[in-house]
Amino acid sequence: MNLINKIKNFETLDLMQEANKITLAEHGNKITLERAIFLSWWCDKGDCLFCYMSSQKPKIKEPQKARRNVNSILAEAELCRRTGMKIEFLSGGYGSYSTEEIRDISRKIYEITGEPVWLNIGITKDLKEYGEEIAGVTGAVEVANPELHNKICPSKSLEDITEMLEFAGDLGFQKAITVILGLGETPDDLKYLFDMIENVGIDRVTFYSLNPHKETIYENEPQPASLYYAGVVAATRIKFPKLKIITGTWIDNLANMGPLLLSGANGLTKFPLFKMFGTRYGKRVEEEVYWAGRELVGTFTDVDALTRSKAGNTELEPFIQRYIKKCIK
């Protein structure tokens, strides 16, 4: 019986058991905390039906004011370094920053963390402008079923995403995609995802569960069931043993994490970092990792880690202290 049929026949536990064995054999037991750093709340396109930025576009009269202060972005990167969190990618809507600005921010983050960053900045033809500061390029696929994708993300064609990722590979960058579960897809749509991973040579997939935003068509929709989410991740892990898988869950669904780790996740993301750090929610993240038999890289509870070292750039200090105050209430 193939993997998709196993999901449809509710054989999720069998999938998880097999996926867990594969994960430990291929990747070991270390789990990373991943942080997406947002550059701006503005997007020129603003028409993805699920997206928070689509609800904000009509309200933003001056897009420049929706951009984050660069020192604030760099301060966030510094705190990721101190706590051992990985930067999943830099993310920004279309038209929020120029290529030169994104490259400059990426280089500064590389200097702070010592690790090149991933980009998730939309479909771009300017990849030749980047260098060693970039580890890889992410395509926001969200839904791999072409018909459904065209309805939900009308301005981001799968063909253009694929072309960008293939070009990224030609330049020596790694390739990643993001997928959101709960947008109306079915288990059968996994065939489209599997084909894309295989044909494009994807190195990393980030799965998210739908976070229903107000003023979008999904605001009253439920998030996907935990075992459905786990089944999709497990099937993907079995199909692609060496693939890096990151899974995202919001603060109201922390119980998803244990099953997702046992299903093949290598990293966890989508947390409101400064609201959760050092709280019972941060402790819950660490407990979920522990009881999945995994070892966490970094910390979500060690408040001393926030002040244990200093930033190389003193201009960042006021921004760093502002974030630390959010963590230490």
TrEMBL record:
InterPro entries: Aldolase_TIM, Biotin_synth/BioAB, Elp3/MiaA/NifB-like_rSAM, rSAM, rSAM_sf. Residues 27-252 form the Radical SAM core domain. CDD domains: Radical_SAM (cd01335). GO terms for biological process: biotin biosynthetic process. It comes from the Archaea. SMART domains: Elp3. Keywords: 4Fe-4S, Iron, Iron-sulfur, Metal-binding, S-adenosyl-L-methionine. The keyword Cytoplasm does not apply. GO terms for molecular function: 2 iron, 2 sulfur cluster binding; 4 iron, 4 sulfur cluster binding; biotin synthase activity; metal ion binding. Pfam families: Radical_SAM (PF04055). NCBIfam families: PRK06267.1 (NF004911). PANTHER family: BIOTIN SYNTHASE (PTHR22976), BIOTIN SYNTHASE, MITOCHONDRIAL (PTHR22976:SF2). This is Radical SAM protein. It comes from Methanobacterium veterum.
